[in-house]
Amino acid sequence: MTDIMEDFDHLKSLTQLQLFERRSALVGSAPNGNYRALSDEVLQELVAIHRILRKHSAPKAARKPDTPTLDML
């Protein structure tokens, strides 16, 4: 299975607001809110947008303090 993020590299350069606007446009294209009617390409783009947004909102990992070594003591 291929990574869908390779197909949507252009999304990585968008701001968070632009990603939300693109997401709203894609979701709004579903007839009567029926997601089953959306094409596979649209659904894949939605997944890519959600992955990028999730990555943006994830807290940064805290660095562990250096453990003392014998040389430090």
Would you mind describing this structure in some detail?
This protein has about 70 residues and is mainly alpha-helical. It has one domain (about 5-55). It contains 2 helices and no strands. The chain has helices spanning about 15-30, 40-55. Helix 1 runs antiparallel to helix 2. The longest helix is centred in the middle third of the chain and has 18 residues, at about 40-55. It is elongated, with a radius of gyration of 19 Å.
Outline of this structure?
With 73 residues, this protein is mainly α.
Notable features of this structure?
73 residues; mainly alpha; elongated
Strand residue percentage: under 5%
User: What is the total domain count?
Assistant: 1
Q: How many β-strand runs?
A: 0
Tell the overall outline: elongated
| Rg, nearest Å | 19 Å
* Main sheet attributes: strand count, strand direction, barrel closure: none
Secondary structure blueprint with pairings:
Layout: H1 16-28, H2 40-57
Helix pairs in contact: 1-2
